[in-house]
Predict the structure.
Amino acid sequence: MYRLFLSSAIVGLLICMFSCQSKKQESEAKDQGGFPFILPDEKPDREMSAAMERIYTDYEAPQPHHNELFSQFKYTELKGFDYNNYDGTISRRDPSKILLHKGKYYVWYTYRNTPTPPQGADKCNDTIPSADWDLAEIWYATSTDGFNWEEQGVAINRPEKPLVGWRAVTTTDILEWKGKYYLYYQGFMQASGKRGDDCPVAVSYADSPDGPWTPYNKVVIANGAEGEWDQYSIHDPYPLVHNGKIYIYYKSDFGERPDLVRMQGLAIADNPLGPFKKHPLNPVITSGHETSLFPFREGVAALVYKDGPEHNTIQYAKDWVNFEIASITELMPYAAAPYVADAFTDTKDGRGITWGTAHFINVTGKRDKFCSKLVRFDCDLSQDINDPEMKQHRVKHKPDVYFRQRLSAKQLSRIEQENEKRIK
Ligand code: AAL
């Protein structure tokens, strides 16, 4: 009885302390007067809600249009690529970042030219692809303006079985290092979809971006040990130069379907052919699909979209490892591969990006004609331009964009059943 009395007294005391405290906060807030009509640029010296605190502490500026790492994205068709009327037999996707060499822009990408569109892992064979990137090679194109491209043909062929990449070489990215060029790519040794989308990273090197490319023929970034997050797949290798070393960011698909998780890791080397050491804090980005990064000020920025709890964000890591959300945006380019002028200069003041290429997957929306295409995107994530049109907060969509997100038959029937129950 005595114990019961004592615990009710303690609970009563705590409730009283809590309510006195919140009354105190309420009255203190009232004492401050209402929040100023003109939003202060600097954090005001007053008590604020968590959300108001955050716009001053977590972002460069309280409004997105004053944030160098906020942008909208604009899209343009690329000229110079043929897709066989989008019948699914030719696909181009997963471009590399753009390299500028002797006045010409270069882009490398996954190129599939197969007798049929992808047929899935059960129906694929030596010539029929399982997935859009199965049986692919790496091709490249050049341009003087970034809109009109001339396809130059193959850069990396599939090697003989059992060499790394014999089944498909895909999703490449470029490194320029001490006057030589390195293409890193996914080297498949089984059709995608047989278990998952499993592959390590392979590399080829050349004295010129026009090749010829010499395959290293060894795995350069290996899958993790059994039971580790990246045990099956190392995707989207994306090299940059920092502190005299090669930093390759990559993505892995981990966990099993339907709970597949996509995150990004980092592997660092002194030499382009390795050994690459994976960062002990991996994964370093918890969301996103393909990798897309660029030096910004002393740190590195990342476009993070499509998958995970922090998709549709642009993130920043001052130390190149610990990423924070720098802005939230929309309609981001998928497989974004920007022109990063200072990707390999080991800059301590990264200038940012204004354009690049990306892909639209399943262009026709038809499974039996599955193919993807390259597109151009533009943005203002640069310290060197100020384009107010890119800094608008809203993308205006026509109603058909919303109506394309229609309810499924299953969802409609659930709603009908709920309505029937209510009416009865
Ligand atoms: C892409 C990339 C990798 C995956 C597949 C082809 O968007 O993430 O390249 O393996 O999908």
About this structure: The chain has one domain: 66-403. Residues 139 and 237 are 17 Å apart (CA to CA). The radius of gyration is 26 Å.
